[in-house]
């Protein structure tokens, strides 16, 4: 029913099923109780209160929880809805609206060379995500190249190469300690000339000595890319660890300010019961979730779909 309302196909895609499966822990927590709230016979004040409490307990931030309940309640009143199952559908629709992106994902647009920068704090899952993303797009027929611009640690370069091998994608790297801007410069050259790549994914460092240095470094990489390729980087994806719940959001604000983030990759959705926090991201950060990491394997990766996410969060 939800799918019909949003005009998407009834049969779930592979990506949808991955999202649903990864939300199992979240669903068995507080948010899984929402369906029971809507099994009551009547729509009462108690129902709205219980819904509000459950959303908050399920890691949906206070503001978004209040907002969701208010919007749902108003629509239920306005449309004179009497059946609880119809009110439940309105709630789901409002959740989808909260998650939906207003702009297209630039990676999927045809372009001679698309440059994607991946940023985020240490351990959030950047390198793993790049390996998965490279594989994902290679499967779709894209010619992918990875740039190792996290030159801070030798181990980071090696780890990226391992992922490149798994994905069947070449990794362009310099020696540890090299200038990340120079790595990106060479990688763009290589994409345009010898490697003929149409998608370049850039790994960046999670932490330098200071946050100031890190931001300067990200800005420099951005400038290098912008000089060589029109409108590059076309996408700056911030990787957030879903298991840190609300913390992930405050962390993200730091990056958003200086790195020009255009979208979020949410990792480790499979390992957390705090998936409800995802509902806050767009409102709090002003950028949409674009991809999710649903496990540690190379194909545990999906395009984020708001409808699939809401179905996974609450059950069908
Ligand atoms: N369960 C699960 N684990 C994940 C996922 N994505 C990443 N991980 C794990 O998270 C850990 C950190 O991942 P990395 O990719 O090394 O993180 P990073 O951001 O590159 O870290 P630094 O380079 O140290 O800044 C690894 O153990 C990954 O296996 C996911 O979607 N699900
Ligand atoms: Mg890394």
Write the layout of secondary structure elements.
Elements: H1 2-5, H2 14-22, H3 24-27, H4 34-37, H5 45-57, H6 62-78, H7 84-99, E1 114-119, H8 126-139, E2 144-148, H9 154-167, E3 170-172, H10 180-192, E4 199-203, H11 211-228, E5 235-241, H12 246-259, E6 263-267, H13 278-285, E7 289-293, E8 301-303, H14 306-314
Parallel strand pairs: 1-4, 1-5, 2-3, 2-4, 5-6, 6-7
Antiparallel strand pairs: 7-8
Helix pairs in contact: 2-14, 5-6, 6-7, 7-14, 8-9, 10-11, 12-13
The structure holds guanosine-5'-triphosphate (GTP) and magnesium ion.
Residues 120, 122-128, 150, 156, 206, 267-268, 270-271, 293-296, 300 line the site of guanosine-5'-triphosphate.
Number of strands: 8
Give the termini separation: 9 Å
CATH topology of the largest domain: Rossmann fold
Instruction: Provide the CATH superfamily of the largest domain.
Output: P-loop containing nucleotide triphosphate hydrolases
Strand order of the largest sheet: 3-2-4-1-5-6-7-8
- Structural class assignment: alpha/beta
Bound molecules: guanosine-5'-triphosphate, magnesium ion
Q: Which percent bin holds the helix content? A: 40-55%
**How many helical stretches?**
14
- What ranges have pLDDT less than 50 throughout 5 or more consecutive residues? none
How big is the Rg?
A: 21 Å
At CATH's second level, what is the architecture of the largest domain? 3-Layer(aba) Sandwich
Task: Provide a compact summary of the structure.
By secondary structure, this protein is an alpha/beta fold. It has helices spanning 2-5, 14-22, 24-27, 34-37, 45-57, 62-78, 84-99, 126-139, 154-167, 180-192, 211-228, 246-259, 278-285, 306-314, and strands at 114-119, 144-148, 170-172, 199-203, 235-241, 263-267, 289-293, 301-303.
């Amino acid at each position: 029913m939800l799918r019909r309302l949003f005009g998407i196909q009834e049969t779930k895609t592979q990506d949808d099923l991955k999202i649903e499966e990864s939300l199992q822990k979240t669903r068995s927590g507080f948010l899984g109780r929402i369906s029971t709230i809507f099994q009551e016979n009547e729509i009462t004040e108690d129902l709205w209160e219980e819904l509000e409490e459950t959303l908050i307990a399920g890691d949906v931030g206070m503001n978004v929880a209040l907002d969701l309940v208010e919007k749902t309640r108003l629509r239920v009143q306005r449309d004179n809805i009497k059946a609880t199952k119809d009110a439940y559908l309105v709630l789901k629709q409002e959740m989808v609206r909260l998650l939906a992106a207003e702009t297209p994902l630039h990676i999927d647009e045809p372009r001679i060379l698309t440059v994607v920068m991946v940023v985020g704090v240490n351990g959030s899952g950047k390198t793993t995500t790049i390996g998965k993303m490279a594989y994902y797009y290679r499967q779709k027929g894209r010619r992918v190249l990875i740039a190792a611009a996290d030159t801070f640690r030798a181990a980071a370069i090696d780890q990226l190469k391992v992922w490149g091998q798994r994905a069947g994608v070449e990794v362009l790297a310099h020696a540890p300690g090299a200038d990340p801007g120079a790595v990106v410069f060479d990688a763009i050259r290589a994409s345009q000339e010898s490697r003929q790549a149409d998608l370049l994914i850039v790994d960046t460092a999670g932490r330098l000595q200071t946050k100031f240095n890190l931001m300067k470094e990200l800005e420099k990489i951005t400038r290098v890319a912008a000089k060589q390729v029109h409108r590059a980087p076309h996408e700056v994806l911030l990787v957030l660890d879903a298991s840190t719940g609300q913390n992930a959001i405050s962390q993200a604000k730091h990056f958003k300010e200086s790195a020009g983030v255009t979208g979020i990759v949410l990792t480790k959705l499979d390992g957390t019961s705090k998936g409800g926090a995802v509902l806050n991201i767009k409102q709090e950060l002003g950028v949409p979730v674009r991809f999710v990491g649903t496990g540690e394997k190379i194909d545990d990766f999906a395009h984020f779909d708001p409808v699939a996410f809401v179905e996974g969060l609450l059950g069908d």
